[in-house]
Amino acid sequence: MYYPESELILNERKAIYHLNLRHEELSDTVLLVGDPGRVEEVSRHFDRIEFKISHREFITHTGYIGKKRISCLSTGIGPDNIDIVLNELDALASINFDTRENLEKKRTLSLIRVGTTGSLQQDIDVDRFIVSAFAIGLDGLLNFYKYNKSNEQMNIIEDFTWQTNYPHILAKPYVFKSSTTLLKLFSKHTFQGITLTAPGFYAPQGRKLRYDLAYPDLINNYTKFRYKDYQITNLEMETSGLYGLSSILGHEACTICVAVANRVKQTFTTNSQKAVESLISYVLECLTSSHK
């Protein structure tokens, strides 16, 4: 299949448009962070750095810890940015930029979001790590992509809509699961559950400042939701898009976040920098323990 210039956009150095990356500048293992400043917080743990690439909010450092090659890339905030990042990462893994046709052999990427989140459960305190076994998207992004829904996906959304009394006027929720392999990798010292991905930080996550909420009961309803042994553990703004597009495009994905807020207790971490540094160290140790 040939991809025309209007669809596969390359810059003057024949790098993918927004990320400004070429094939050789990306590892098969990619850590995704929201904050561009966090990329350096990760790469300072590298033994050596091969590439430092930047364009707009998208910064990438690729290097090694021992024999393990890792890229760290900043996505910015929200499912709209995840749409850009995932599609362009897949293009790097799947398309020959010279011929504009599919590679004979595509790369399968391991995409790990390392971020911050708000806990929705009383027993998950701030500074604890949460791994997203499932992600329910409230943002509508995956509704623009064609895919076959499994019975499990349909059951989860049906239960979610009914149990939370989710308003039908809002974008239809969707759900995808984590990579089983990556989920197992981060199983120690973490909580696992269902993550909600919201399309905004304030009213979409039930925060009330100088306005009234259209649906003030939703946050409380989320905390009570159950699907089999899973509950909704946390709220953030990226994971459903990451899981959905990774599933459709054939990549492995997992999100692990540190809780910087507990929405039930209305508390916030006293040292967010320390919490994030602790999470980065944990993730890198899990990834590299057998590659040193």
Give structural notes.
The strands form 2 sheets. A 5-stranded mixed β-barrel has the order 7-12-10-8-13. A two-stranded antiparallel sheet has the order 5-6. It is 27% helix and 29% strand. It has helices at 36-43, 79-94, 151-163, 180-185, 218-224, 239-249, 272-288, and strands spanning 29-33, 48-55, 58-65, 68-74, 95-96, 101-102, 110-119, 129-137, 174-177, 191-197, 226-227, 230-236, 252-262, 267-268. The protein has a single domain (23-288), classed as Nucleoside phosphorylase domain (Rossmann fold, 3-Layer(aba) Sandwich), CATH 3.40.50. The protein is of the alpha/beta class.
- Main sheet summary: 5 strands, mixed, barrel
Number of domains: 1
- What CATH calls the topology is Rossmann fold
Q: How do the SSEs run, as a string of H and E?
A: EHEEEHEEEEHEHEHEEHEEH
Q: Radius of gyration, rounded?
A: 19 Å
Q: Which CATH-level-2 architecture? A: 3-Layer(aba) Sandwich
| Beta strand count | 14
Q: How many individual helices?
A: 7
- Global geometry: globular
Given helix and strand content, the structural type is alpha/beta
Strand order of the largest sheet: 7-12-10-8-13
Observed structural traits:
single chain; alpha/beta; Rossmann fold; five-stranded mixed β-barrel; 7 helices; 29% strand
Short synopsis of the structure:
With 292 residues, the protein is α/β, with parallel strands linked by helices. It has seven helices and 14 strands.
Secondary-structure map:
Layout: E1 29-33, H1 36-43, E2 48-55, E3 58-65, E4 68-74, H2 79-94, E5 95-96, E6 101-102, E7 110-119, E8 129-137, H3 151-163, E9 174-177, H4 180-185, E10 191-197, H5 218-224, E11 226-227, E12 230-236, H6 239-249, E13 252-262, E14 267-268, H7 272-288
Parallel strand pairs: 1-4, 1-7, 7-13, 8-10, 10-12
Antiparallel strand pairs: 2-3, 3-4, 5-6, 7-12, 8-9, 8-13, 11-12, 13-14
